[in-house]
Specification:
Length: 60
């Protein structure tokens, strides 16, 4: 019950990842491969952060 008001940082980071991937796909479709590459790299780094956050949550 008390976890109801607790902020979930994993969901916030997952949303950021999804937004970056959406922008990356749009850049690729528009032919801007440099921007696509940059956004994909950033999204990959965020995905690693998500994995580490999930591991921490699983240990609790």
């Amino acid at each position: 019950m008390f976890g109801l008001f607790k902020k979930n940082t994993t969901k916030k980071v997952e949303k950021k990842y999804a937004d970056l991937m959406t922008k990356a796909v749009e850049a690729q479709r528009n032919g801007n491969i440099d921007l696509y590459s940059k956004l994909s790299f950033e999204a990959d780094e965020i995905l690693k952060e998500i994995d580490s956050l999930k591991e921490i949550e699983d240990k609790k």
